[in-house]
Amino acid sequence: MKRFVLAASLVFAAGTAQAGATFDTVKARGLLVCGVHTGLPGFGAPDEKGVWAGVDVDICRAVAAAMFGDATKVKYVPLTSTNRFTSLQSGEVDLLSRNTTETLTRDTTGVMNFGPVNFYDGQGFLVAKKLNIKSALELKGATICTLTGTTTEQNLADYFRANKMDYKPVTFEKQDEASAAFAGGRCDAITSDKSQLGAIRGAQLQNPADYVILPETISKEPFATAVRHGDDQWFDLVKWSVYAMIEAEESGVTSKNVDEMVKSTDPNVQRLLGVSVGAGGGMGKALGVDDKFAYNIIKQVGNYGESFDRNLGPTSKINIERGLNNLWKNGGLQYAIPFR
Amino acid sequence: MTLRATDRPSGVPWYNDEKTRGVLYQVVLLAVVLFVGWWLVSNTLRNLEQRQISTGFGFLWREAGFAIAEQRIRFEPTDSYARALIVGLLNTLEVSAIGIVLATLLGTVVGVARLSTNWLIARLATVYVEVVRNIPLLLQLFFWYAFITQSLPGVREALHPLPGVFLSNRGLAVPVPEFNEGQAWALVGGAIGIAASIFLARWARKRQDATGQPFPTIFAALGLIIVFSFIGWLIGGAHSALSIPEKSGFGFSGGAELSPEFAALLIGLTVYTAAFIAEIVRGGVLAVAYGQTEAAMALGLKSGLVMRLILLPQALRVIVPPMTSQYLNLFKNSTLAIAIGFRDFVSVDDTVMNQTGQAIECVALIMAVYLTVSLLISSFMNWYNNKVALRGSTR
């Protein structure tokens, strides 16, 4: 039914979302409308108190902090994997921050622009330990639970084709139903992005210790935020809000020490926090917002590392390694473009 | 006395003239319809252009790149999106066709059972109807799916009631004859059997019309079809090799498998729709005047014969029109398949839409397919309705 609404939005919607309009629209509205997951712990889900939390949600909060100086000025719109792109295209949301894999097709035919990658993920397999399987290459002839409407279905087919193995897919629309079928023994393995497998194991299976994520990563899944194509000013703000969080971690600025770091003599930190502003204005002015935009983000949301630890780190339910998501200095891929 | 435009008494303005006003309303209605149609089309095209979405059905010939477990025709990830959609459509048609037949049989039995003079049977049928038709179908599908996958044992502990038959939460695996060209003769034999049965039925009717002697046509026809098929099979070389399922690796190899998803959907649709059909059948039978029953009993017919020869044929005239709606409902309800992981047309279309981003085209395909099949079902039922309607009746 939802998909019908999407097509209908293309048929009925009066022309919205003109190029360059989003920045002004959001500013005038005083509220950011952010498309997030319907409920994926660690990425986008309401916590026990009903407050949205997760690394994707933190991007929404960072953009709101940059724009309004207030990270709470966000309205969250939960979107399924099927309706997320149309919601963005039809102007229902200003920003899509919902563990969305950036691909060439989505970038070109989907009429979107992708911001910086905020999480490097990859597709893997979760199996019961009692199967005694050490590698995904032993899954020949297995029945595998998967979700419709995602890149996982295609990656799965590619992987088994490349390795000349056959398999039986059982395809569901919702993660809960796929997890339930897997837990009930309908499938030998369930496939999804590894971060999601961690969430399934931690939150949806009765004895997490009885299951193991196989070592193979069969696809590259760089999760990035997306905005509408041709909306450059808005795109810039989203992009540099994400980089501000990464740059803050690189420079050692955290939500706790940011007020002292303002006094830092390091020119990098001074530029980031909007302390040294040249005659023509600082970094914020160039983006059309307050020069203290990065300060506001760090103060209210935290740097990239803080956001990761809070939502996905050892103290969270998900408990996954930083791995590729470490800073480049520490052997990972996260790298901020210079603030100068 | 009718007033014509020329009869208009002087003093009545032209816009109050009946004929002029009629024409005016038609013109206004047509203009509104045309404008709304034009607006919808042009707005869609403008929105598509603004979002730089390319339109057209060319994507259907691109490689699908995903696999479908449930397939009636061979499908590989290297095949096209169009073929994937056909696989989905065949799955939809299969489950709907079998569901319609089973729901009709079950519904008729339950409907007649509700009228039974046996207190227990009538009450059981009532409970069935009231419980089943008042619970949402989606919940029932979840129930049947969970029932099958949770209550049956895993593959390694599969139930093994007969040699070569395995029942587990992966479905039912049964032996099937291995395909051999000689077996085509069995089909030829079967066709001859069917043709012979038709002639037999005509002869039997003529004889009954002439002499009143009944003839066990159904049993004779079944016998003819079986005997001729068997002869054909012998002529073809009597190949008796069976493909027998065996446990191997994660599942079974060989034989044919019935998946839990298909079974759950079929059971769910059948049980649910049968409850509505039962009420239609009951209503149809009750619509036949009680005098018919009394007259039949007075002739000495047994109650089974009264139902089969007197009541049901007359009840059909009342039953067929509402039955059409139930068949259409069952067909459309089969789209709930996606919730329990069965690859019907909508489920496959969903994947195609997400991989290609062609939302308008994919939704248009769904509308076209369901509209076409629904119209086919209803025109078939209308034809059948005309056939059972009273001859020479004017409506």
From TrEMBL, chain A:
The signal peptide here is 1-19
Q: Does the keyword Chaperone apply?
A: no
Which part of the chain is the Solute-binding protein family 3/N-terminal domain?
31-261
The UniProt keywords, alphabetically, are: Signal, Transport
Q: Which domain of life is it from?
A: Bacteria
User: CDD domains attached here?
Assistant: PBP2_BztA (cd13692)
Question: A biological process (GO) annotation for this entry?
Answer: amino acid transport
Q: What family does this chain come from, according to its entry?
A: Belongs to the bacterial solute-binding protein 3 family.
Q: What is this protein called?
A: ABC transporter substrate-binding protein
Tell me which species this is from. Roseiterribacter gracilis
TrEMBL record, chain B:
Which UniProt keywords are given for this protein, alphabetically ordered?
Amino-acid transport, Cell membrane, Membrane, Transmembrane, Transmembrane helix, Transport
Q: Which GO terms describe its cellular component?
A: ATP-binding cassette (ABC) transporter complex
Q: Which InterPro entries match?
A: AA_ABC_transptr_permease_3TM (IPR010065), ArtM/GltK/GlnP/TcyL/YhdX-like (IPR043429), MetI-like (IPR000515), MetI-like_sf (IPR035906)
Question: Does the keyword section mention Transmembrane?
Answer: yes
- Highest taxon in the source lineage: Bacteria
Any GO BP: amino acid transport
Pfam families listed in its UniProt record = BPD_transp_1 (PF00528)
GO MF annotations, alphabetized: transmembrane transporter activity
Q: Where in the cell is it found?
A: Cell inner membrane; Cell membrane
Domain ABC transmembrane type-1: start-end pairs: 89-382
Any keyword NAD?
no
Listed CDD domains: TM_PBP2
Membrane topology of the entry: Multi-pass membrane protein
Transmembrane segment boundaries: 23-41, 95-115, 127-147, 184-203, 215-242, 262-281, 362-384
Provide the family line.
Belongs to the binding-protein-dependent transport system permease family. HisMQ subfamily.
* Xref: PANTHER family: AMINO-ACID ABC TRANSPORTER PERMEASE PROTEIN YHDX-RELATED, MEMBRANE COMPONENT OF AMINO ACID ABC TRANSPORTER
Please state what the protein is called.
ABC transporter permease
